[in-house]
Amino acid sequence: MNILEKFQTIIIFAALILGLLFGQVAIISDNASHFIVPFLFAMLFGVFLDIPLKDFTKGFSNFRFTRLTLLINFIWTPLLAYFLGAIFLNQEPALWIGFVMLMVTPCTDWYIVFTNIARGNVPLSASILPLNLMVQLILLPVYLLLFFGASGTFDMGMLIESIVYIVVLPFILAQIVRYLLSKWNSIEKPVISFFTSAQIIFLSLAIFCMFASQGKLLLDNLMVVLILLIPILLFFIINFLLVQFVGKIAKLAYKECTSLCLTTLARNSPIALAIAVVAFPNEPLIALALVIGPLIELPVLAIVSQVLLFIKERAV
After folding, report:
1. Cβ 5 vs Cβ 117: under 8 Å
2. Is 207 in contact with 16 (CB distance < 8 Å)?
3. Phi, psi at residue 106, to the nearest 5°?
4. What residues contact residue 83 under an 8 Å CB cut-off, 6+ apart?
5. Which of 59, 65, 175, 220 has the most C-beta neighbours closer than 10 Å?
6. Average model confidence (pLDDT) across the chain
7. Domains in the chain and their CATH numbers?
8. For the chain, how are helix, strand and coil distributed in percent, rounded to 5?
9. CA angle 47, 52, 56 (to 5 degrees)
């Protein structure tokens, strides 16, 4: 374990706090959002570069993992999110809607890095990404209609374009670079090692930019953070315990259970936020809930990745 891996949780926390602080500087907050996608691109390029293409194709054959992921993410999770909102957010309907929108959309980018940090099955996690994306886009309006009688339209083209930039292009580029590096054995290992180690840096820079761009909004609405804190934490705690139980019942190996855990916990706040801004232009609290979500989610994912590593070490 190198120095970056040893202190990765501290690095992520520092990026978050520094992002909030520097977000109070106008020139930084106005421009930070432009750098989020490039840093996410570099982060996932490093993840994909470290994994041979044949490992990704193996992930598609794990039907047990796929079934469990779909059941937990699209049947159990929406019901849990709705009832947690009904208990804690019934006096704030806009926050309730934003909370549900966040919790019914599985992550499609940084959960892969946290899976890698926790030594999970990254190819398996990546293989479920397209299905998670497609199902969440189909079902999100259905959930809103069933739970709140609310639905909206959003720019599907913009959504697909963002996924191409953040996921598809770094994957293709990583496989091309990996193929070219295989022709030069002397530099293959150092290059791959560099990008593997730098993943946590690129992730932290993306987190810094995200919170720098939204820092003022968050600090101006700290009470909303407190209102959302309990239901969001309960969502993560309940789902973490559920996945550990399901993993034992299904006899999943550590790598599979870790992938299932982080696929279940990580949420897709950027996509949910993009949809909310278009679907609910007159309800700023819905969008605010989706901005606040990562403030709580990212530290939780960093802690969970370390807890999973501790579980792995205890099992040896």
Report:
1. yes
2. yes
3. -60, 150
4. none
5. 65
6. 83
7. 3-315 (1.20.1530.20)
8. 85, 0, 15
9. 80
Q: Which residues pair with 267 in a beta bridge?
A: 106
Residue written as tokens 């044949």? 54
Please tell me the pTM assigned to this model.
0.73
Nearest to 108 by CA among 186, 40, 156: 40
User: What is the Cα–Cα distance from 263 to 245, expressed in whole angstroms?
Assistant: 15
Q: Can you tell me the distance from the alpha carbon of 17 to that of 145, in angstroms, rounded to the nearest whole number?
A: 37
3-state secondary structure of 105: coil
Question: Which of 280, 236, 237 is CA-nearest to residue 94?
Answer: 280
The answer to whether 139 and 117 are in contact (CB under 8 A) is: no
Count, residues in the chain: 316
Q: Rounded CA gap, 266 and 247, in Å?
A: 17
Beta bridge partners of 106: 267
Mean pLDDT of 226-245: 96
Asked if 221 and 288 touch (Cβ cutoff 8 Å), the reply is yes
Residue 218 confidence (pLDDT): 72
Burial 56-70 (b: 16+ CB within 10 A, else e): beebeebeebbebbe
Decide: helix, strand or coil at residue 19. helix
Residue range 218-235: average pLDDT? Answer: 88
For residue range 285-311, list pLDDT tens digits in order: 887 888 788 778 888 998 999 999 999
pLDDT tens column, 62-91: 788 999 999 999 999 999 999 999 999 999
pLDDT interval class at 120 (50, 70, 90): very high
Confidence at 118, pLDDT banded by 50, 70, 90 = very high
